[in-house]
Amino acid sequence: MRCEYFEADLCRSCTHLRTPYDEQLTAKQAAVEERLSVPTWLPPVASAEERFRTKAKMVVAGTVEDPTLGILDAAGGGTDLRGCHLHVPAIHDALPRLAAFVTNARLTPYSVPERRGELKHLLLTANRDGRLMLRLVLRSTEALARIRKHLPDLLSDLPLDVVSVNVQPQHAAVLEGEHEELLHGATLPMPVNDLVLPLRPQSFFQTNTDVAAALYRQAREWAGEVAPSSVWDLYCGVGGFARHLAAPGRRVTGVELSEAAVAAAQESAPEDTRFVAGDAVTWVRDQDPADAADLVVVNPPRRGLGPDLCASLEATRPAHLLYSSCNPVSLARDLEAMPGLRPVRGRLFDMFPHTDHAEVLVLLERRT
Ligand SMILES: C[S@@+](CC[C@H](N)C(=O)[O-])C[C@H]1O[C@@H](n2cnc3c(N)ncnc32)[C@H](O)[C@@H]1O
After folding, report:
1. 359-366 and 320-325 as β-strands: parallel, antiparallel, unpaired?
2. Do 244 and 131 fall within a single domain?
3. What does the pLDDT read at residue 289?
4. 236 CB within 6 A, ligand 1
5. Which domain holds residue 140?
6. Ligand 1 probe mutation, 203, 205, 207, 257, most atoms within 8 A of CB
7. Residue 138 within any structural domain of the chain
8. Could you confirm whether 326 is annotated as catalytic?
């Protein structure tokens, strides 16, 4: 993939762009094998090299008349990346119209060096059909009336299923705040494999939907082999693993901190599947051991599970555990903290080509 931003040294996010993709994948596989003691590895799942990102997090800078959508440089000024080759076409095509919206609605880009302005980020997610969810992250609600006024024009130009405003008042490198106001729609349906996952603002969704689909299929296949009668999906988001693992006669419980994600997941939950809003660490600790699941799926943020949850899972003694990790370092540490579970096999899913980021799925079984 050739990238004019990389060549001009404007963006270096794709660190390994100059390395041919097959070599990148071989190196990433070698790195995870070195870090993790897993006896058997399936061949890595490759990504498309470009146009795979279904989620864009664009920092807004510059001026009302000439906003930049992209990243900040070292001095806190904006670098426009609206032509980034990683975004799927629906996102790529929508960004110029969103830049025009910033100008029309007089949304002053937030200036980090001056601590002034209103619009901080545009968060855009696309589904397989090109439908979009737009979230505008603002410093305050000052611009809300102007956004509402110009929204009908935007809705007639772009395939937006959901538009919301998120208020992030702090001067800190925090992507979004707690307060969210829906302006249009509520849910973006995300078709994945044979399912549709309901995505709402303030809910996590994997960035590379095609590779995520392969990850969920793999989890479903491995779960099918061990045939659990009950499953916990910890850190479940909108229920990607829970929904793929649901089967007749199998009880599935998803646990997730985001109430928005849980509410959406619960609405489309099949029979015998339920979603609980809460902290996975305390939820597992509070379960009656008699109700423990045969198979536990975990998919934590980069920090991993941590010692308390590892200890609770050891005590719970599930027959199998599926660990989906975006950070081999915390994964290796967590596996060491659960000596009662033995890694059986693993697979690398390359969600983030051109970078060192590795998403790994490992199947573990209880040592007898
Ligand atoms: C890597 S995402 C995984 C989401 C989901 N499994 C999927 O496939 O899309 C991690 C999720 O953990 C949630 N989370 C973070 N801390 C948590 C906690 N202490 N307890 C439960 N969920 C948590 C986040 O909100 C996020 O949805």
Report:
1. antiparallel
2. no
3. 85
4. yes
5. 55-185
6. 257
7. yes
8. yes
